[in-house]
Amino acid sequence: MRNVSRKRRPHSAPQLPNKRQPSGLGEGAANSHTNRDRRRGNAMVEFSLVFILFSGMTLGFCQLAFWIWARTALHYSVQQAARFSVTGRVRNGLGHVDSIKSVVRENAGGLLSYPNAADDIHVEFYDESGNLTTRNDGGNTVVVSVRDFELPIISVIPDFGLPKDPLDIEVSAVQKLEPYATPPAL
Length: 186
What we know:
four-stranded antiparallel beta sheet
């Protein structure tokens, strides 16, 4: 028999799965968690900054939409009151000016439902030469207006030096009164 010597292979370390192997300081399984946590922290900071800006813009657009709606509703109400005043009609038990003011309040979409709303509604008459008069004769011009109406600011954001004063809205409508035989009582 022949003596056959087998070549021995050198002993090798077991192969680890295909994962990143620690190769020195600053790397390894413990450090990969801190990088992931750091990225999560960055995402939370970015989200909070974007959320604050987005919320501010949303509130700003809501305030703008509310102001546009309020101005439109008040303008519609004074237009209706001016049309009502042209014919010289009055409401039961009210004079001409108080009837006009009641039409403004009814058509204002609830904006003029507070007790002193009549103080913000103004009815003025002008004669044919453009002078202010207290008479509502036919042929005169009536100006129905809402002045000094204060629309509150929607605010849930702390004061950053921005004005907190309410927004003032002023609207008016002008009509020429029809010529009628006897003007209604003011």
